[in-house]
Amino acid sequence: MFWPNLITVGADAIVGYDATILCHEFLQDEYRLGEVVVGERAMIGAGAIVLPGVEIGADARVAANSLVAEDVPSGATVAGVPATEQ
User: Fold this and answer.
1) Residue 7 and residue 57: Cα distance in Å, rounded?
2) N-term to C-term CA, the chain
3) What phi and psi, each to the nearest 5 degrees, are found at residue 4?
4) Distance (Å) of CA 79 to CA 9, 20, 29, 53
5) Domains in the chain with CATH codes
6) Hey, how many other C-beta atoms are within 10 angstroms of the C-beta on 32?
7) Nearest-CA neighbor of 8 among 47, 58, 74?
8) What pLDDT does 2 receive?
9) Which residues does 63 contact at the CB level (< 8 Å), separation at least 6?
10) Average pLDDT of the segment spanning 59-65
11) In terms of Cα–Cα distance, which of 69, 71, 45, 67 is closest to 80?
């Protein structure tokens, strides 16, 4: 809805139902804007939230309902709030 040009989704990546990819963040005294990159064959589970400025590497997996606030290395699996490597 806002700045979709800042979101890049690689080939064969999967974004699950109701997942949210944000490239902007409105706070009380601050406004953040950041590109989000989802690598090739990466998977984002249903209901996950990806915050601005995050890169999800190729073949990485984000569990359902996770909050991704930091980059996810290629091939890694992350889960939780905030998402950590499993």
Assistant:
1) 14
2) 31
3) -65, -20
4) 20, 15, 29, 18
5) 4-85 (2.160.10.10)
6) 13
7) 58
8) 63
9) 45, 48, 77, 78, 79, 80, 83, 86
10) 98
11) 67
pTM above 0.70, yes or no: yes
Residue with tokens 């889960």: 79
Write the CB contacts of 31 (distance below 8 Å, at least 6 apart in sequence): 24, 25
Query: Is residue 3 pLDDT above 80, yes or no?
Result: no
Give 83 or 28, the one with higher predicted confidence.
83
Torsion angles phi and psi, residue 41, rounded to 5 = 60, 15
Helix (H, G, I), strand (E, B) or coil at 57: coil
Name the token pair of 37.
């990159």
